[in-house]
Structures are given as structure tokens and as C-alpha cells.
């Protein structure tokens, strides 16, 4: 790890000031991704600004019946919070599908949104990577790309976003609360992460000097018909090849509202409003779910080692929607897929 | 002058209560909690496996919660209570998990064992595991390359009071 300076922010305003005063600085909260990347010399901040003691650990109900989650709430505390378990079980399930118990105890929800791709070439400083070194090229496009994206890729980058939590948050229509030098703002989670296009080194639409202060969940939690299904190379503690967050509202067997987001397949959680619109008013059947899968995967492009992901995603979408419709959500402990 | 100052690492006084004993260390900020425990305090029970949060050998309890000490900066834990495998026994009696690991032969080489036992201590405190599948899932952050997993699960079940 390179040497760096260390500051402890006293409040959010102080963190913003420190960020502005030290252009090479980075914020640190849980540190689970950043310290790892610093050990690999992928991240080389001149200074770490410790925000872990800031008062951003509350989970509060909002006036409209939603939930505001402080950016420093640990992932595990969020997953096991009674209001999340009861009203937003999709979020709990997605979090518990990710990382390990230790990492979930450390990692903050704000940091979860900021984690970087696990593309092996991004981590390997001996290889070109446009995300790590803009303009150097992409080693994955013609390299080992079994784990890489099939949607929203560019000639510059085919990396995936590794977060499970973000996939559930995208499906639910969460918003991100942000503070910065020019004040506070909110952004839909769907707009928070970017597609790579020709600037894959910029993961998010946070401006320089901005800090995530909270994540807000809308009132509708889809607590009756949801499922998070994560397909990976081992049963636990691995990143997704494909994951699906599905949430439905049913009137009888008719779908009145549908949300589907995919993980492990793109540079950001992948949703298709067209697919969700097509499901509304339809019966909750495998045929209709299959049609939604086609729409979600429209334009999917495989590379030399990941063509299996397109069919895997198609089947996972149908299966997860069936789990949601049947109110038999995927257990993250008992691994048999219903 | 400024350059000269920058070449000298800025050491940060850090207070940790380690296994019940207050310790003050002057640490450069890039010292991980793992290195502080092993290299500064001589507590080598906590193991450095992968050093990247992938194996769990470095698991310790910080304020009662299990974490990967290899991905924790010691200076960020100023004021925290740290429990390592050396701090689990009480008055010469092994912690029930330590005894259970012996009873079930829940190791071969033993390198992952301190992390396994600290992680299991956190698991019991969290209270989210009630059967073998849930133990396996919630212990998945601790790898055992000898493959002692069935015995590790059995040991944890014993400590949970399950037959």
C-alpha cells in the first residue's frame, strides 16, 4: 500500500471541505473495497478522509411512508432491520446474497454504491484497462471475459457492477441523497451509476467533492411478491454471474405492477421499462415472464467466453419472476432453487 | 521544511482496548488492524491469509462485531474494543467454541482456526443462524483449505447447544 495522509471528518460539511481542499483525497467508511484496491495499487489516494464517525447511521420513516437510510448504516444492520425485513425484504435478501458476514458488518450502504468492478484486469496493474488508466485499452474484450457484461457495454469497457444491494434498490426505485460544495440534491439510483461509453473510469454521476448522505426507499416495498436470485460459481461468497431482483403486485393472477432488475450483466443495475410495462395487466405466467426476459435482454451482446450468460439470464429472469408470483422467494441460506 | 516533514510518516496515537487491556500505539495510517495486532502487539494468533478479505483468517471482533482485520485501518478504530482468539478463554477455561473445535476435531493444519472461532463467536452473538444451512451460509467468509467444514459446522452447533 502507498503512503497517505489521514484526516477524520467532524461533520458532513467538514468532509466536503476536506475533499475540496485535497484533490487526491478519497472518503473512507467501511473500507472493504478501497483498502483492497489500495493494496493492489489500483487506488492511490494522497489522503483518506475518515467519515466513519459521522452521524449518518439512522434508519427513519419518511413523511410519505418510505424509509431514509443513513449512508453509514452497515450492510448487515440494514439487512436485519425490522422495517427492512417486514417492508422491503427484497433489499434484505439482496444484501444477504452478497459478500460475507464480516464484510457486511464493515461495509456501509453508501460505500456499497461506490464499490468498483471486480474485473480481474482492472485489478491487475500489469495489464491495460481503460477504467484504471483511461486510454490504455480494454484487456477483457479479447481476454478472459467469462464474468463480464452482456448489456450496455462499449468498445472501451465490458466490466460489471458487482453490487447485489444496488440491484434491489434499482428495482424498488430508490433515490440517493447527496451533499456537496453547492448544496444538497437527490438522484434516482437508476441514474447514479453510468454506462461505460467512452469514460469507463467514471463509475457514477457524483460530482467532485460530493458525498452520499442517505438512500431513500419509496413507500412501495413489494413485500408479498418478491425474490432475489443470484447465480454464481459457488453457493456463497462469490460475485454474481447473473442476478435478478423481481418484485410484483398482483390482483388475483393479474400483474398490476412489475419491477425487474439484473445484476452481473452490465456496468449498472439493468432495468427495462419496456419489459415492466409489457408485464402490467398480464397474467403471471411463464410465457409472459419469458416475453419480459426477451425485452430485458434486447441488444445483449456476448464476448468470447460469456455467451452462456444470455441464456442463463433469460432463465433466471423467468425463474425469479415465478418465485415472486408464487410468494416463494429464494432463500439465501437454503440454496435449493424453488 | 514541508517536504522534509512529508517524508516523515505522520504517526497517529491510537488507543485500542485489546482483549480487555488498554494499549496505545503510534501508528502510520496505512497500518491495518491485522498488522497492528501481529507486528505491534505481538498477538500472532490472528492470521494473515490472503490479506484481501477473501479468506477470513484475520477475523477479529471489533466492539463485539466480527470483521476482517486485514481490511481495517487501525487508526480508524481508535477507542474500540478488540477481541482476538487470545482473548476468548476466561480464567484458564477455554471458550465453549474453542472446546467444541477440539471436541469435533474441527481443523487439520489449524491456520484458519483462530479466524473460524472468532467468526463463530460473532455468529453466535448475531443470533441469525438456527440450523446447519444457516451456519454454513453465515460462515462462508471463512475458508478452510483443509476442508474441515463438516466438523466446523458440528462444533458450532455444539456451542449453540444443538445436538
UniProtKB/TrEMBL annotation, chain A:
<dbReference type="GO" id="GO:0016491">
    <property type="term" value="F:oxidoreductase activity"/>
</dbReference>
<protein>
    <submittedName>
        <fullName>FAD-binding molybdopterin dehydrogenase</fullName>
    </submittedName>
</protein>
<dbReference type="InterPro" id="IPR036683">
    <property type="entry name" value="CO_DH_flav_C_dom_sf"/>
</dbReference>
<feature type="domain" description="FAD-binding PCMH-type">
    <location>
        <begin position="1"/>
        <end position="222"/>
    </location>
</feature>
<dbReference type="InterPro" id="IPR016167">
    <property type="entry name" value="FAD-bd_PCMH_sub1"/>
</dbReference>
<dbReference type="InterPro" id="IPR051312">
    <property type="entry name" value="Diverse_Substr_Oxidored"/>
</dbReference>
<dbReference type="InterPro" id="IPR002346">
    <property type="entry name" value="Mopterin_DH_FAD-bd"/>
</dbReference>
<keyword id="KW-0285">Flavoprotein</keyword>
<dbReference type="Pfam" id="PF00941">
    <property type="entry name" value="FAD_binding_5"/>
</dbReference>
<dbReference type="GO" id="GO:0071949">
    <property type="term" value="F:FAD binding"/>
</dbReference>
<dbReference type="InterPro" id="IPR036318">
    <property type="entry name" value="FAD-bd_PCMH-like_sf"/>
</dbReference>
<dbReference type="InterPro" id="IPR016166">
    <property type="entry name" value="FAD-bd_PCMH"/>
</dbReference>
<dbReference type="InterPro" id="IPR016169">
    <property type="entry name" value="FAD-bd_PCMH_sub2"/>
</dbReference>
<dbReference type="Pfam" id="PF03450">
    <property type="entry name" value="CO_deh_flav_C"/>
</dbReference>
<dbReference type="InterPro" id="IPR005107">
    <property type="entry name" value="CO_DH_flav_C"/>
</dbReference>
<keyword id="KW-0274">FAD</keyword>
Automatic annotation (TrEMBL), chain B:
<dbReference type="InterPro" id="IPR012675">
    <property type="entry name" value="Beta-grasp_dom_sf"/>
</dbReference>
<keyword id="KW-0560">Oxidoreductase</keyword>
<keyword id="KW-0001">2Fe-2S</keyword>
<dbReference type="InterPro" id="IPR001041">
    <property type="entry name" value="2Fe-2S_ferredoxin-type"/>
</dbReference>
<keyword id="KW-0408">Iron</keyword>
<dbReference type="Pfam" id="PF00111">
    <property type="entry name" value="Fer2"/>
</dbReference>
<dbReference type="GO" id="GO:0046872">
    <property type="term" value="F:metal ion binding"/>
</dbReference>
<dbReference type="InterPro" id="IPR036010">
    <property type="entry name" value="2Fe-2S_ferredoxin-like_sf"/>
</dbReference>
<dbReference type="InterPro" id="IPR052914">
    <property type="entry name" value="Aldehyde_Oxdr_Iron-Sulfur"/>
</dbReference>
<dbReference type="Pfam" id="PF01799">
    <property type="entry name" value="Fer2_2"/>
</dbReference>
<keyword id="KW-0479">Metal-binding</keyword>
<feature type="domain" description="2Fe-2S ferredoxin-type">
    <location>
        <begin position="12"/>
        <end position="88"/>
    </location>
</feature>
<dbReference type="InterPro" id="IPR036884">
    <property type="entry name" value="2Fe-2S-bd_dom_sf"/>
</dbReference>
<dbReference type="GO" id="GO:0051537">
    <property type="term" value="F:2 iron, 2 sulfur cluster binding"/>
</dbReference>
<keyword id="KW-0411">Iron-sulfur</keyword>
<dbReference type="InterPro" id="IPR002888">
    <property type="entry name" value="2Fe-2S-bd"/>
</dbReference>
<protein>
    <submittedName>
        <fullName>(2Fe-2S)-binding protein</fullName>
    </submittedName>
</protein>
<dbReference type="GO" id="GO:0016903">
    <property type="term" value="F:oxidoreductase activity, acting on the aldehyde or oxo group of donors"/>
</dbReference>
<dbReference type="InterPro" id="IPR006058">
    <property type="entry name" value="2Fe2S_fd_BS"/>
</dbReference>
